[in-house]
Amino acid sequence: MTASKILSAVALALLAVAGGAHAETYDGVHQLTSAASRADVASQAVVAAHSANPYATAPTPARPK
Known about the structure:
0% strand
């Protein structure tokens, strides 16, 4: 092999190593950081379940018959 082919193979190998070494890290399960107790969250859930849907769109008009 010529020197240019060896040099290009080495350069390609270095690019592959440098480009492929960016993997995400795993931090494990995160700790719970809530300030509310279970009873507070349960009471808030009951209130939210009985209130209007804040994400609902405006009602559509009735279709004529």
